[in-house]
Amino acid sequence: xxxxxxxxxxxxxxxxxxxxxxxxxxxxxxxxxxxxxxxxxxxxxxxxxxxxxxxxxxxxxxxxxxxxxxxxxxxxxxxxxxxxxxxxxxxxxxxxxxxxxxxxxxx
Length: 107
Known about the structure:
By secondary structure, the chain is mainly α.
């Protein structure tokens, strides 16, 4: 419904990147113009965002301890760093967005 937050909104409030490069309503246009790499990056960003948001909700629901939550974030960061090293440079933008949101929350 209209009052249900979108993934981007819920994530951003929690200090997690939502939309980094594009939004879902641009996917069809990207498909039509053959930008399959951008669609893949969009889906990868959404998967990481969904996982981080799930971990945050699990922490607040006491399904994850504070230590487990921190470890989960470290594992995601390590995964992104490894993916960047393997050639997926678009994840650098995700890390930069994540760091920017985290620094704003800390300040």
